[in-house]
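Hi U.,

Before I forget, here's the chain from the pilot set. I'm dumping it here mostly so it's searchable later in email.
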Amino acid sequence: MRFPALSRDDPETVGVVSTWFVRDGDSVRTDDVVAEVQVDKVAAEVLATGAGRIHLLAPEDAEVRQGELIATID
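Structure:
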């Protein structure tokens, strides 16, 4: 799962993983809300892209570039 593109003006924009709603290793289903991210004043929910166990790659409050991996599901 990648940090979503919330700023179309600058694809290199850095955002923050505000909140994880799951813990590392939790089971998730496709389209479960797993995190909230923020770029400037825009916040968005991140949905699971598949079903399985989620592995978090970015901790809460981590600064992440748009498009960067923040979690994997296997």
